[in-house]
Amino acid sequence: MSEVLDSAAAMVGGGAGSASSREWAGAGDGAAWPPLAETERGALRELLIHGPLPRAEIARRLGMSRASLTRVTRALMEHGLIAEGEVELRGATGRPSELLVVRRDARHFFGVKLTGDTAFAVVTDLGARIVARHEEPIVSTEVDAVIDQIVAAHARFAADYPAITAGGVTLAGDLTEVGGRQIVKDSPFLGWHDVFLADLVTERLGIPMSAENDVRALTATEHWFGAGVGCRSLALITIGAGIGFGFVIDDRLVTGHHGRAGSLDHLPIDPAGPICGRGHRGCASAVLPSPAIVDALRMPGLDYPGVVALARDGHAPALRAFADAGHALGVLIGTVANALDPQKIVLTGDGLPLMELAGDVVHSVIDQVRAPGVPPIELDVQPFEFDEWARAGAVLGIRTALQF
Fold it and tell me: How much is the pTM?
């Protein structure tokens, strides 16, 4: 299924890993990212994340003089990345102040999300707004075959969006860096091991491409362009076919020393519980993911939507399976809150029916696990679409451009 959306408006009001060091000259005419100084990248980032701002506010946020900021914004305007927008009255003095805005349509970025059987692809503008989307089954999980599909998706988009500057691919699994190069160490749904995916796709497309664990990429996207805007610390938890965790601390995405931060899916929950696929008894992965909920009912031919339907009809074993999963989720959320004390925890994924069917269990267990005397957790449950994971790949490209 493919759908192309209307073009974005011209102006708005509203760690990419080793790819950040790649040359930008491979991008087509009008797409190449200009060389920007650190201060210029910082000013553009503030406008991208926080929307239109007056010069004085940008200067305050970056700790710059007005004269220095004038030089910075002049350079960004010359590159066509920002423009002067509407005028607002400053509250303290009543004097008019001209706002600077990002020219969202100045560049476009390509994002891909790979599951075990489907490739989701999008194009976004510079403000991370999706302007085109496409999805198709993965015909073969062989690396070369998947890359061929990514290249074909890019070609489909390039006909309407020739100025695609950079992008990224997100997928579940263990992704890290080796010798300054991004590598897919292990991706269980695709059966990949030790694949230099970012390098391979960059070579084929001729534009800088990154590859990242899908949950980390989604966390970075929520931090800049979603529920986490304005949060210096953020935790993201995804539930569905698996369990994923992403963290932002002091405005920085946490990857860990070996690129494996957030491995909490095998946290012990119930010493008398079922055994997970790796032999752990009663860990979160044994009861919380959608397949574990299905397995708990031991009914041949049943899938996750079927279990959800049974629970909604009051089927006792189905409700019990969701209650057990809710207990595990409550322990995980409370543990994350105790360990990191984030401003907000975002919960998403295609397993969100759990909150409908056992949300009371989740919140009750969170209250039991939380350290005493601390403020309540701000838990933000976000609707889930696979397009959002592909958008996170495009945001990898934006972050690459800003060397963030």
Answer: 0.88
